[in-house]
Design brief:
Helix content: 40-55%
Radius of gyration: 35 Å
Number of strands: 8
Distance between the termini: 44 Å
């Protein structure tokens, strides 16, 4: 019996790329490299900067390195040749805490000015003044007085002591660039009295805001997945919360629910549903519930658009077959529509969770983070700018990044397991 082997070149492994394909691939990567490099810089560099600052005790004032600032003025108001005057240099260390060593400055003395007795730390050479002032402690300032006699040339040539700017030098420890690191920022964040309250508020706001936006978006998509008169108007009405400026709708909500002059409180009092005004955005836990409701109301249109688009692409033959089998509307939704929407719902949940977790402007405009609504993102602003602790603010931002990274990892693990990947 003769055994027939596989025919060469028919069922063997695929051949590698040919010279032309390799050239095209190199050309494609070469054309894409500037874009990939630019995007990487935009994304990676700020992220690395935040991680770097989070391990340093950086205050708002540390964003500017210690520098010697100099202000030059002419004192005495000379009016004629022979008058005496004084050039006053005010030298100041720009940093309130960190010292500046080797502080010097040079300045050009205008023509027509004859310099008198100088400070021992200063000398003049060819009309150039040089002063070596040594070390300046944090926030230190000092005045250097240079007596001069005004000559006729000063007036004839229209000279001015501000004609040349003093040039200063000095060395100071820049906390942003040195290699000293600390965990104090993270210790301060996790040991803060309200950290767990902030984490709870963030989790509550994110989870219920995300799920609520998806549920209301699904409900709105179900309503508009039918043909009826005024469908276009209803679609535009549903989109209004999402397209309206956030500052406009946030201030509208604050005014509507104001305990003193808000329409909602006036309506509740007139209907006898409450005996006194309710401070919706000023008391716990109602304030957190209200900002979550605002999040749901404002962002459900995004879910509505994606879900409606997916619904309209589902084959109608399935629903016709289900009608013939006597399926109820709930059964058609649960067994036919929902499985078809699972993919888009999972993507929307991931995106909305990340966006809501990072949301800052809504809560800041509604409550400013008060009354139990302080979330991690608002805490970043509070730490970095309200109390000028940039390092602690960066540490909170790193915590946010790590939480979202863990969430994304477990989310994709669950999705992959369900899809059998």
């Amino acid at each position: 019996m003769t055994t027939v082997g596989p025919t060469k070149g028919t069922h063997g492994p695929p051949k590698g790329l040919g010279p032309l394909q390799k050239t095209e691939a190199r050309l494609a990567w070469g054309l894409l490299f500037p874009t990939i490099f630019s995007v990487s810089l935009v994304v990676i560099l700020p992220l690395l900067a935040i991680f770097w600052i989070s391990f340093k005790p950086v205050q708002l004032q540390d964003l500017r390195a210690p520098t010697a600032f100099i202000n030059e003025t002419l004192r005495g108001s000379p009016e004629a040749a022979g008058d005496s005057a004084t050039i006053r240099y005010t030298v100041r260390n720009s940093h309130a805490e960190r010292s500046l060593t080797g502080v010097t400055f040079t300045d050009l003395i205008p023509d027509g000015l004859t310099v008198g007795e100088l400070d021992p730390r200063c000398r003049i050479d060819d009309a150039t003044l040089f002063c070596d002032l040594g070390t300046f402690t944090g926030g230190m300032s000092e005045r250097i007085l240079v007596p001069v006699t005004v000559g006729a040339a000063y007036f004839d040539e229209g000279q001015n002591v501000r004609g040349s700017d003093p040039v200063s030098t000095g060395q100071g420890d820049n906390i942003l660039t040195n290699l000293e690191f600390t965990l104090d920022n993270f210790v301060k964040v996790f040991n803060a009295r309200d950290f767990w309250q902030v984490l709870y508020a963030t989790t509550f706001y994110t989870v219920f805001g995300t799920i609520g936006a998806l549920v209301f978006g699904l409900f709105a998509a179900q309503l508009l997945n039918k043909s009826f008169h005024g469908k276009g108007f209803m679609r535009g009405l549903f989109l209004f919360p999402y397209v309206a400026p956030v500052i406009a709708v946030a201030l509208t909500w604050v005014n509507l629910f104001d305990p003193s002059s808000g329409s909602i409180n006036a309506l509740l009092l007139q209907m006898g549903l409450t005996q006194e005004s309710i401070n919706f955005f000023g008391q716990r836990p109602l304030a957190l519930i209200m900002v979550t409701v605002f999040e749901i109301w404002r962002y459900f249109p995004l879910s509505f658009l994606f879900i409606l688009a997916r619904m309209q692409s589902i084959d109608s033959d399935m629903y016709e077959a289900a009608d013939m089998d006597g399926a109820s509307p709930f059964q058609k939704f649960w067994y036919l529509s929902l499985p078809q929407l699972a993919g888009i719902l999972s993507v929307l949940f991931l995106l909305r969770f990340i966006w809501t977790f990072n949301k800052f402007d809504d809560i800041f405009l509604l409550t400013g983070g008060n009354a139990g609504t302080l979330t991690l993102t608002v805490n970043v602003y509070k730490q970095a700018f309200a109390i000028s602790n940039i390092g602690a603010g960066a540490a909170v931002a790193v915590v946010i990044f790590c939480v979202l990274l863990l969430f994304s990892f477990f989310f994709f693990r669950i999705i992959s397991r369900e899809e059998g990947l």
